[in-house]
Amino acid sequence: MVGVHSGTTTVIDQGGPSCMTLPGFRKFVAEPAATRVYARSCPPTSSGGLEGHYYPALYGPDGVDVPATVRAAQENPDLIRGIKAHAEIGGVARWGLTVLRLGAEMAREADLPLYVHFGQLWPLPKSGGGDADLDTILARVVEILRPGDILAHPFTRHPGGFVGPARPRSSRSSGRRSRAASASTWATAPTSASTWRAACWTRGSCRTPSAPISTATTPRCPRPAGTPAGSHPTPSSTRSPGSTRFSLARAMTGLIACGLTLEQVVPMVTCNAARMLGREDEVGTLRPGTVADVTVLDDRRGRFSLRDNGGTEVIAERLLMPAFCLRAGRRIDADAPILPQAVAA
Fold this sequence. Notes:
The protein is α/β, with parallel strands linked by helices and 345 residues long. It contains nine helices and ten strands.
């Protein structure tokens, strides 16, 4: 539903498979999918992301297997396009940057980019915040990174985003690439229309020719039987209610509403994103001889209400809605029930 039936020909699983679960991910997820699927190996815990972050201890240094993760990435280059690690305050409070450094070691050995998650996943331990200083984490993380590594969720409304009231544009001098994930981009600190304008202004790098954007879609699943009570990964005060639907086309609409042009936004979700994956020769292109990888969008005009999970509303004059896509010679209509509906303002 989040792929071809939402008009998106290619998706990236951000940290679901691990060195232990990658064979199953390939057989039961990637190979049967009509959507082209890539992944970043979960980081760097051996358990992968299947447990849904309910058990923070699994993400600590004791759960890391550097050689096995590197070997899994090297033996599956068609599928694994990076290593994912966390720089969120719950983990940093527990282990400092130890796990992130192990993730960077894996990425270097596998010659892949490191994808770094910002924004709180786990509550702080009872012992306190430890090493988790929101205003210093980014500077310490940047020292670990290489050019081409990816900082994700800059404008998350969860604590620990790397762009905030005290940290505007602080990553621009680092030379690292920032990926704006729309599901957590549209509400920074204040919940007002100015947030959208500030997001566009501070997202200066997104106006450059090489910037990629995406939408982060996380399914809201029932708590599995046997999950300990009260073990939700984030406090209720910052938990996303999951009431707002997102799609890649809606992310494009949001950035146009922020002031970018369609001509700027289209490369961000096609050739720029493909370049970030190191797959620009096979996806995100209309070059003759490549496999069909085309999305057709309706460009509607009027007044449309765009709303995020923080309650912020912006009125857009253009609305991009996926109509259908062509994927490997097959036409697939954009009929997923999770697609956001147009709301006239």
